[in-house]
Amino acid sequence: MDTVIDQADLISEMVKEQIVLHGFSKKRKNEDVPDEDAMKQRVYDLITAKVVSTREEKSKKAFTPGELYAAVFPNGPGADRKQNRDLLSTEEEIVRDKLMRKAWNLTNPARTGYIQKRLGQHNKGVVLCRAEIARGLDSHIGCFVTDNDDLILNDSLQPQIESLVNKANALRLHSEMIGERRPQLEARMNSALGLGVRRTVAALPSVDKTGADDEQADN
Known about the structure:
alpha+beta
């Protein structure tokens, strides 16, 4: 048990050390301690410095989790592309993963995400997106800010729509399961579902019904 606790303490200190060594620090009782706000600002500056305005720029300007980590913590464990990651110690691998998640989590594309929220306050013309991008022959998840309307619709709005549709499908299948097992609940279940549908429709943004009907007809 002591070994587990000692390793956890060691990793925590190594993470703090990397944050301070990369200049994200402040003084507290004459001691340099991690400054999370400074680290967040660095991530924000990196992401917003390269606005994607065309589809061709998407892969070129986006950051993968590893690329963002290396940009924020260039001297961190495994940040050098030339370094053999197989030679990292177990502790260094964990530190790398923790720091990478710390930076990447700031790119949550939801409206409440750190960078997305700040963009709404200071730069209303761009939207933060996450999407698949090309790296050589492989595809990776990447994040970027864009003022391109097509990218905003495809990589920001469409994933939210797909998530809603998937949840609706899951609800349908779940209600069918209950109906098969407890047929006597059909009336009460339909009532509950009807209320849920009305609440969902009320919560959704207003849309042009004519446009929606035209799209359905095309399909």
